[in-house]
Every structure is written in structure tokens, then in C-alpha cells.
Design goal:
The complex is a heterodimer. Chain A has strands at about 5, 10-15, 20-25, 35-40, 45-50, 55, 60-65, 70-75, 85-90, 95-100, 100-105. Chain A is an all-beta fold. Chain B has strands at about 5, 10, 20-25, 35-40, 45-55, 60, 70-75, 80-85, 95-100, 105-110, 115. The chains are: A mainly beta, B mainly beta. The interface of A and B includes residues 42, 55, 89, 98 and 101 of A.
């Protein structure tokens, strides 16, 4: 199975900060990475697909980058509604797998 | 816009079969190049993929659950279903259905169904 290691597992940030979250895969996953945002009691919401493509309707302050085994989600100018948990997912290889999540909290 | 809904049974006893159905609107389960999937989430194990099937009938299951899982579609009702047999407390989780295009240009999750085995 492809292991996805997310870091950090949690972070504290202020409104307006730039936040970066890392996702490292145990093998090359050909950019088949998606990023999700999840708020308490809600389903995950897709933000990014194919490592760097923004889903329709997602604010442009969200961006993804990376290739091969190292991927990054960046949130420019963090907004109050962005405080949530973020997950990466690989869909290159079955079984599909997720990172352990990064909880973004208010400083 | 794809909308998925998966009302759940709530409470099951050990050894029973979990059955969940995901109703799809805004799209068709039989659409070319679409996938349909089930996931679950627990506080301890995080997000876990259960299985996926494609418009052409190909199905993939998580090897850790494969012996107990069946995912199938009902095109006439535009829905797809999950059966998980012989449940135990370890199957207590929130179950989500998901669907979208193969390239993931569209991904839509249901609101989730909380299932407790006790």
C-alpha cells in the first residue's frame, strides 16, 4: 500500500497567515493526489485534484504543488472559514489511501 | 452538480450485515468515465477506502475488507450500494459515499452515515 505521511499533524495560525502542509508518499504516485478540507461533523470537501488543479468553486487562495512523492497544499492569507482538518489522498494505486490529516487551529 | 445521500441504519449488532445505499442526483451512475466509491472514517484509523466501481462494471475493494464487502449499482434507481457482512465493533464508523469523474475534475461526497456496532 502507498503510505502518505502528512506534516505537521497540527498547526496554529492567525488570520492572514500563509500556511503550507506537506504530504509525502512512500512511492511515486504520478501526481494523482487530491487534497480535502474537513470541518467537524461534515464530510470531506475536495479542494485540489491532480496535485495542483483547483476544484470548481474553491477560492484561489488554495493551491497545490509537487510531483513524484512530495506534495504541498498552500493556503495564502488564511481566512476564518479555513480552520479545519486537511487530508491528502492518492488515487494512483489501489488501495486508495489518505494521509493522517493536518488540523489547522486558530492561534 | 453531483449530490449524494446515504441514510444509514444507525445501530447494528455484531455479526449483522451493514447495508447502505447512496442516491445520486445531478448525474447518472451509468455515466461513462465516472467512478463511485465508499469510504469510512473512525477517530482511530482516520479515513479508509472501502471500494470503488466504475461505469463499465469494474470493481475494486480494499484487500483488508474484500472478503466481507460487496458494492453494486442499481441503474434504474440511479443509486449504488454497500454491503458489509459480519460486522464487529471495529466497523463502527461514519460511512461516506463518493462519486465523480475518473480524472477527479468532479468529486462529490455524501453527508455521511454514522454506524455503531454494539
Amino acid at each position: 500500500d502507498v503510505q502518505l505521511t502528512q506534516s505537521p499533524s497540527s498547526l496554529s495560525a492567525s488570520v492572514g497567515d500563509r500556511v503550507t502542509i506537506s504530504c509525502r508518499a512512500s512511492q511515486d504516485i504520478n501526481n494523482y493526489v487530491a487534497w480535502f478540507q474537513q470541518k467537524p461533523g461534515k464530510a470531506p470537501k475536495s479542494l485540489i485534484y491532480a496535485a495542483s488543479s483547483l476544484q470548481s468553486g474553491v477560492p484561489s487562495r488554495f493551491s497545490g504543488s509537487g510531483s513524484g512523492t512530495d506534495f504541498t497544499l498552500t493556503i495564502d492569507s488564511l481566512q476564518p472559514e479555513d480552520f479545519a482538518t486537511y487530508y491528502c489522498q492518492q488515487y494512483n494505486t489501489y488501495p486508495l489511501t489518505f494521509g493522517g490529516g493536518t488540523q489547522v487551529e486558530i492561534k | 452538480q453531483l449530490l449524494l445521500q446515504e441514510p444509514g441504519p444507525g445501530l447494528l449488532k455484531p455479526s449483522e450485515t451493514l447495508s447502505l445505499t447512496c442516491a445520486v442526483s445531478g448525474g447518472s451512475v451509468g455515466t461513462t468515465n465516472y467512478y463511485w466509491a465508499w469510504f469510512r472514517q473512525t477517530p482511530g484509523k482516520g479515513l479508509e477506502w472501502i471500494g470503488s466501481f466504475y461505469y463499465n462494471g469494474i470493481v475494486y475493494y480494499n484487500p483488508s475488507l474484500k472478503s466481507r464487502v460487496n458494492i453494486y449499482a442499481d441503474l434504474s434507481k440511479n443509486q449504488f450500494s454497500l454491503n458489509l457482512t459480519a460486522v464487529t465493533a471495529a466497523d463502527t464508523a461514519t460511512y461516506y459515499c463518493d462519486g465523480g469523474t475518473g480524472p477527479r475534475t468532479v468529486m462529490s461526497w455524501g453527508q455521511g452515515a454514522r454506524v455503531t456496532v454494539s
